[in-house]
Input
Amino acid sequence: QLHLVQSGGGLVHPGGSLRLSCAGSDITWYSDSIGWFRQAPGREREGVSCISANGETTEYSQSVEGRFTISRDNAGNTVYLEMTNLRSEDTAIYYCAAQSFVLCGVNWDESREYDVWGQGTPVTVSS
Output
């Protein structure tokens, strides 16, 4: 059974950068698209980005496009979310998740599409 283990995150000043990692532990990793979500206090979980199983297709929410980059190293079983020019509104718990489709799909930003979730990692953007 696939397990996702996250690392990275922490405290950063506005305008700074962070990289999140999501490592998978099962052979099904290679046929799953991977999404990143975030949830700020008092708000619903929000889809941030998604990458297809082969890493050739990516999706971004409007709020992060141009600032965040998702990438995938299948040899290392890891998906990365590189976050730059961070803003206070990016403060949230970030989660990676796997869905059993090779492509992200039109509903990539819907949490109900995903079967397996990482443990979450906090990102705080503050001066």
